[in-house]
Amino acid sequence: MPAAPSPSPLRPAPTTGRVEPAPARRRPRRGSRAERLAPFVLVAPAVLIIVALRLWPLALGVNFSFTGDGDRNGTPVGLDNYATLFGDPLFRTALGNAALLLLLLPVAVAIPGLLATFIYLKVPGHRVYRGVYFFPAVLSPVIVGAVFNLLLGFDGPLNQLLGVVGLGPVDWLGDPDVAIFAVVGVHVWATFGMALVVFLAGFAALDPSLLDAATVDGASLPQTIRHVIVPGLTRTIQFVFATTTIGLLTSMFGLLYVMTSGGPEASTYLPEYYIWIRQGQFDQPALASAASTVLLLVMLLVGSAQIGVLRRVGREG
Predict the structure, then answer these.
(1) Higher confidence at residue 71 or residue 291?
(2) Where is the ABC transmembrane type-1 domain positioned along the sequence (predicted)?
């Protein structure tokens, strides 16, 4: 009996006329109600703590800024406290110093960023440098201020060293034109270790093949930083900018109190020190609340502008 001819490779095999049904598409399984609510239950304690300890006191402080002090305690006064603030030369000086700090902000961020880059590239002794740079971050601002009062004194070691090289002494803490820069420099020295650790954590997530490609292409270190590191660490840089801004505007009270107490001639006043003076010495909590509200608005505006600029830089890079 002859075998059935095999179907030609040029013609499709004959069909039986039956159409096979398509396999039924499995519908995605919907989780139970408990599974859908689980994420909200997990974050609820943290949200409640933030609302109770942060947002609610913040709202009370803003509301309190529209009331009076002294005989008018608790009485609504509208914008009188804000008019008093901007008419006070001390507060205007504090805002001017805050603007100066914001101008110095890129330097305060670039220092730990560059040091973290060198440590990531494993310069000789990088493990030792990592510990040494972080050590000042664990010191109390009072201790740091007391130590630098000795170092920066008119007869202190730094001026003696300057005298040896023929530059003459500098009144670091007594000259109104120099004191604010001295205090800011001490603050940056004492706190940049934390930003350095954040940068190193960002480098851990950076694709090393990008750095290898830049090395093969013959890119210089500035070109590598601009075109590889900065775009790769955009979010890390945004975080460091935000935390450094908050630190400069709200975490320098200890240094100011120990090193200059706002002097000389009120040249080192900052908004947070002004707030303490109004609340602690003059018993004007409503005026202090108004100053706190202004400081909050400044930080929100500056933070939003920083994020916008850094995102643009990251896209261009």
Answers:
(1) 291
(2) 95-306
